[in-house]
């Protein structure tokens, strides 16, 4: 079998076009503020892409660039200003923050109504309670890719590889809410390969290049690869060995061009949702 390739670029482009149409009819421009601290080049690229994508759908985006020497108190003051700013519907603090910040406290300071990354305890709690409001962007993108590929989740055995607050845990919560039977695996899971082989839907979010091999994948399974890993030779690969797994899987996402484009599109959707619910 050769797997159906789930085209994240295409699904993200369709979502952005829908968002642009909805935003054009609003009569106002939703506002997104992205806070970037320090000079990490990868973060700077992500922020530039977010800015460009926001402008493309009619969102008024601004980036607040702060020097490495910014203190926790300075950053909290910036967030307080953005919380109070009526033109700002969404606030995103680009992660990871430099090591001298208490990241949890910074996230906690964001008004949950403007938390378009879905990471505040309030939004994480709403998701865990089964009444999601602003859902983390990458997990939301994973669910949209599964929907776009027509994958049935009800009653399906799903395995999420990785239990981070950013990706693994919210993906597991969303799959559970969609009536899948979910195993959440991590670095202490015994016989990971056997656990993976039982899954009809496998979501990999570990940050280990090409860790998932063909003999970890059940015949016909759907494989969603969240991983983004830069190899020493400059190549970008996922957590799944794509070329060998596509020969076994029923459907699979590539890296790049799978989950990545969905993350930004879902950030834009969250900004629209935040704007609509704040201004209701
Ligand atoms: P984290 O490092 O926060 O979490 C990794 C998880 O994988 C942990 O739960 C860890 O287990 C588990 N893990 C690590 N090594 C192993 C192993 N050998 N066997 C089993 N489990 C293991 O990563 P993130 O969740 O933030 O990101 C995961 C990947 O997704 C990265 O490649 C990242 O770049 C990518 N990513 C992509 C995005 C996109 O837009 N496409 C957005 C966000 C992330 P334990 O908890 O036991 O330590």
Overview of the molecule:
- The protein folds into two domains: 85 residues, Leucine Dehydrogenase, chain A, domain 1 (Rossmann fold); 124 residues, Rossmann fold (3-Layer(aba) Sandwich).
- The chain has ten helices and eleven strands.
- α2 crosses α10.
- The site of NADPH dihydro-nicotinamide-adenine-dinucleotide phosphate has 22 residues, from α10.
SSE blueprint and pairings:
Elements: E1 4-5, H1 8-24, E2 31-37, H2 41-57, E3 60-66, H3 72-84, E4 90-93, H4 103-108, H5 121-128, H6 137-148, E5 157-161, H7 168-177, E6 181-185, H8 192-197, E7 201-204, E8 222-225, E9 229-230, E10 236-237, H9 242-245, E11 251-252, H10 259-278
Parallel strand pairs: 1-11, 2-3, 2-4, 5-6, 5-7, 7-8, 8-11
Antiparallel strand pairs: 9-10
The structure holds NADPH dihydro-nicotinamide-adenine-dinucleotide phosphate.
Q: Brief overview, please?
A:
The protein has ten helices and eleven strands. By secondary structure, the protein is of the alpha/beta class.
Bound heterogens, unique:
NADPH dihydro-nicotinamide-adenine-dinucleotide phosphate
Main pleated sheet: 6 strands, parallel
What is the CATH class name of the largest domain? Alpha Beta
Question: What is the name of the CATH topology of the largest domain?
Answer: Rossmann fold
* Structural class based on helices, strands and sheet pairing: alpha/beta
Q: Could you state the order of secondary-structure elements as H and E?
A: EHEHEHEHHHEHEHEEEEHEH
Cα Rg = 19 Å
Number of strand segments: 11
Task: State the strand order across the main sheet.
Answer: 1-11-8-7-5-6
What fraction of the residues are assigned to beta strands by DSSP? 15-25%
Termini separation? 50 Å
- Low-pLDDT runs of 5+ residues are none
Number of helices: 10
Give the overall form: globular
